[in-house]
Design a protein that fits this description.
Blueprint: E1 2-13, H1 16-19, H2 25-34, E2 38-39, E3 42-53, E4 57-58, E5 64-75, E6 82-94, E7 97-103, E8 107-111, E9 125-134, E10 142-148, E11 157-159, H3 168-175, H4 186-195, E12 207-209, H5 210-215, E13 224-226, E14 237-241, E15 248-249, H6 254-278, H7 282-287, H8 289-297
Parallel strand pairs: 8-10, 11-15
Antiparallel strand pairs: 1-5, 2-3, 3-5, 4-5, 6-7, 6-9, 7-8, 9-10, 11-13, 12-14, 13-14
Helix pairs in contact: 3-6, 4-6
């Protein structure tokens, strides 16, 4: 997912007088050194702003240096996040295990052995789930250890603290993650159903729209909320309950819990929207039929 991040560094300057004769020299140097490369646990997409800089220190021979704190737009990949556009390059045997090796524009990807994708060959594009992400400093790609998409992660519910209002500025920022995607198409219905966890849709009680929940939040303080796999996360619906037997995670505050729900919803929408765009012709859909079979095979009963 995209994030904003602050990075601190020292810019070494070979010739101070020449350096500062160029307009926006510091910004250009940061962009050249950081954009499209891994640093500080992320892949930097753009250098956006210089937040603070020191006076230039002068050294021997006209050289110098500046300490800088700057803001970037970057990519990070969380455990469990789905990468939709992994192109398979080849198979590789490591310690007698058959791994798939793939990539996309931002990642080099290793997919763990799994018999359900045993027939997948080079050239296919498949969705994978992040198990671990590595950001080697200076690398143009993130190293991803992954598995084929699965639905084994347990449902998680959040216990809301009574008497604590939401920080609506943070909530609004979280909603900005949501991509604008047309949902009244055959492609959307196909991939929304394909990424749903269960082979047969489950009935869920206590369902409420996430937007309604936020607007009427005071009514639900002290409740337990969640977005279980039985709900299509693309709908933005949640479960509100008082069932104390559910596995509950306690956040530092209610805002963090609601942001987690919004992020789950936004992630699901992004995955379906990207798959609709990626497999956008009848021919491409037909050619990847083996992938759809694999995705149906991993659904929960």
């Amino acid at each position: 997912m995209k994030i904003k991040k602050r990075i601190e560094t020292r810019v070494n300057i070979a010739q101070v007088m020449t350096f500062f004769s160029t307009p926006d020299a510091l910004m250009r140097t940061l962009a050249d050194d950081f954009e499209g490369r891994c640093h500080s646990g992320c892949l930097v997409l753009t250098v956006d702003n210089i937040l603070r800089q020191s006076e230039c220190t002068l050294e021997h021979g006209g050289a110098g240096g500046i300490d800088v704190i700057f803001e970037v737009t970057a990519l990070v990949f969380e455990v469990g996040e789905i990468i939709t556009n992994c192109t398979i390059l080849h198979r590789s045997t490591i310690e007698d295990n058959d791994f798939l090796i793939g990539e996309n524009n931002h990642c080099s990807i290793i997919i763990a052995p799994d018999k359900v994708i045993g027939a997948i060959s080079p050239g296919y594009k498949i969705p994978v789930m992040v198990a671990k992400a590595k950001y080697p400093i200076g690398s143009t790609k993130v190293g991803i250890n992954s598995t084929f998409i699965h639905h084994n992660k347990p449902d998680m519910y959040y216990k809301l603290m009574p008497g604590e209002a939401l920080d609506m500025a943070i909530i609004t920022e979280a909603w900005a993650q949501l991509v604008d995607a047309p949902r009244n198409t055959k492609g959307w219905e196909f991939f929304d159903a394909l990424t749903y966890a269960y082979a047969v849709p489950r009935e869920v009680k206590g369902v409420l729209s996430l937007k309604t929940f936020i607007s009427d939040f005071a009514k639900y303080e002290g409740s337990i909320v969640g977005m279980p796999k039985a709900i299509r996360a693309t709908t933005g619906d949640i479960v509100v309950t008082t069932d104390g037997s559910l596995p509950v995670q306690i956040f530092a505050n209610n805002t963090a819990a609601v942001v987690a729900l919004i992020s789950t919803h936004a992630h699901a929408v992004r995955v379906v929207a990207e798959m609709v765009e990626l497999y956008n012709t009848p021919e491409v859909l037909k050619n990847h039929a083996i992938v759809w079979i694999a995705m149906r095979h991993v659904k929960l009963p």
